[in-house]
User: Fold this.
Amino acid sequence: MTHPHTHAAGRRTGTSSRHGGRSAAPVPPQIPARRGPGGRRLLGVLLLVGLLASVLPWWLGTPAGSLRSTAATVTAAGRITGLIAGYLLLVQVLMMSRLAVLERWIGGEHLGRWHRDIGATLLVTVLAHMSLILIGYADLRNQSILAEVGTLLGDYEDMVSAFVATGIMVLVGFSSVRAIRRALPYELWHLLHLSSYLILLLGFGHQFTHGAQLYKAGPVRTGWIALYLLVVAALLWGRVIAPLAFNLRYRLRVADVVAESPDTISIYLTGERLGRLAMLGGQHFRWRFLTRGCWWQSHPFSVSAAANGRWLRITVKVVGTHTADLRDLEPGTRVWAEGPSGTFTAAHRLRERALLIAGGSGITPIRAMLEELPPGAALIYRARTPADVLLNRELDWLAQERDTSVWYVIGSRDDPGPRQLMSPDGLRQLVPDVARRDVYLCGPPGLVEQSVRALRRAGVPRRQIHLATFEL
Amino acid sequence: MRRAFLAITGLAASTTALVVLKGSPGATPVAQNVPTAQPVNPTPLGVDPSADPAAGPPTPSVAPTAPTSPKPGKTTTRPSGTKTTTKAPSAPRTTTKAPQSTNRRVTGNGFENEYGYVQVQIVVSGNRIVEAVALSLPSGGESDIHSGDVRNRYDGSGGEVVQKQNANLNTVSGATETSNSYKQSLRSAIEQAF
Assistant:
């Protein structure tokens, strides 16, 4: 991957915003109340019940003992996997509907992980469904699989679109395999991923024209269609109506763009009624800057300061074409934001004290969260060179204000100092009660993996480790 | 990814389990002849007509056309496709024909064709077929339409089976396979009955 680095992200002079710019001394923020994992578990159970319910029509509709030939058995397995795939597809889309309820109960990070796992499962299930039905039907008709494909495509209504939907799903699935995804530009990957909606559309028809359980009018068919409508409604609400309401209400605009380091910028935003914006430090929005070159892209960035009622700030590392364009934003530019989302917040803590580990520009959500954590937190800030340390003056100030110990650990990952420190013993030496703390991690994947390993060996329970991953 | 792997394995295992569970009970096609004079088990040989999806649509199989007098039983088919109650009167209310004979239900062998599974049951009174019921017909997609045609033509106490009293039925157009399987199953039922 190439990173078009900037030589100098010119510091803009003056805060020309009529909304008042950024004066420091924020209102003393409150420590947010805890949000437990109860909602997430409840939803998980509900989804499992739904999975069972989706196979129930098959179970009730199949006479016991009717699966006597291999073909019948294979076809039956094909039908079951078809029902499961249909259900998983709906769940998968629902996970990405950005409904506020889901964001609040499950959280962006977990949603992302669920989406990935369900996605892989869905792809395998759809392929299994297709192969089993093909094998089963081919066996019944005594013809080859290829001839059966021909029959299905030629004689069966809606089958062409179903095959196309499968093709898209395979494409999307493969483009999401980590190694392949890293090689693709984000924009291309995103576009490919957006085509997933076509799957919903193209795969719809064949379920009802050929689905043994869905063809007949009746409660099953009605329920299945109702599920579809529900998911589409959730999509509309979460992706269109709610963001529209949010943006009409807060009317965010760029107030100023400031260079934090040669390749990092902070964008300050102002708007209306920001005092009523419910947002937690560590959460992120998806930002769409409404300028000629940028409006069609939306990217997730965490806010790098807690809510203060007057301005928002994001701090962005310039790593791609889009982020490079952000340096040239004019004050006054309208901004379309969707969010806030994420469970990487002080509200999701399980213990009273926290250890924060940041790497490079991963400091941004942690900087915002620091304002809301109970006193006594500890922060380890890893950076390659002193120039990569961002926001250090604010950090020092917050450290004093909120009784937080901060360690800047500078150097390459293989240097003896960082290596010793990022080991189980090193962590225990630095933070003796690490096993009884929540640990918030944000940084490059290498650092995160290494830290999680070290933390686990230092005795930190997995559920106390919070990761900020906003890949989607 | 580890969870996805677990999920896939779990789904594969449970799909297999479901298929095996459904497939096992009546592994061999046994025809059972049940005199209706006894309280009839509505699910002969474990083939549950109630669970049969093809029994779902409210086809006029029995209800509207029932001119012959020895009513063997009343089959209520609800459109939900989940529950069917086959109620047999404790004593046949025979008024005109064949007062001495009791009705027997004979289930033919099941036949699988490319569209689905076909199994026919006949009700025999003396040496006459008085009713035919398809316990299972292909379902799903267009099969439902064809199965409906087949059912309308053959089934019931006034259908072609009762009229012809043999398995040389006219093939229902558009449903050749299912017609043939119907005839095969009917033939095996007749063989067992007489």
Remarks:
- Residues 72 and 369 of chain A are 58 Å apart (CA to CA).
